[in-house]
Amino acid sequence: MKVIDFYSKRWIFFGIALATIVVGIIAGFVNGVELDIYFKGGSILKYNYVGDVDANKAADIASNIVGRAVSTQITTELSSGEKRLIINISGNYGLDAKLQKELDEALKGAFPGSDLKLSESSMVEPFFGRMFLRNGIMALLIASFFVVIYVWIRFRKIGGLSAGIMALIALLFDIIVVFITHIIFRIPIGDSFVAVALTIIGYSINDTIVVYDRIRENRKLYPKLAIEEVTNLSITQSMTRSINTSVAVFISVTVVYILAFANSIEAVQGFALPMAMGTIAGCFSSLCIAENLWVMWNKREAKA
Question: pTM of whole model > 0.90?
């Protein structure tokens, strides 16, 4: 088996990770970060229509009438061909009957040939969404803390604390990729973000632990090898398993996304696409980031 020298290429891997983060920062300035209406509060109106409707024009009309920030989305259900205009009106209160009627008449007047019909109207209370977001962030912090503790205890013979901290850095990169995916594809940050982040933490740390386990075994088998050589060998031995697992997960989640897109199931789309990107990031960070950082830490300690 040919051993791949991952350690000598570490700055290439770190550069890829840094470039990804920079792209995310630029996208954040360009697109902004959009919170899901369930965290902001407001009203959601859904209209069925035929023909063509200009979403931007509809947003301008709604914004002028209600005096609040409005976002619109056009969806098409591929199975039935039914078109839908979704109007999200932000705010801490709903839309009263008078304003809703005025908006309804204005939209029908602006698009007379579209046969607009209000199919659903709902008020969103932001309190529970914000509470869920706080609890979700707390869950991420608690999960990260216990990841470090677990790795520290299990791999104490190979410097468990350093292994845990580097695994946490790799997990942070995975979550950043999920966040960047939301920004680039304009997916509102909502409960699906928390769900994806927690899923990726569990998925990615498993791959990292597998590599650490190989390092622990190979240090016993090859005590004369340098730490970077042992790490290169361990990553090479684990690489096929990690890539095959990631490809299988990626394909499965991609199929889910395609089916959700075909049937205009937005909640599933908002989970599947970031999950697919997070799967790729998890594989990359587990093989190319965590262990190389761990080797650098240990080599520096050896020199001290």
Answer: no
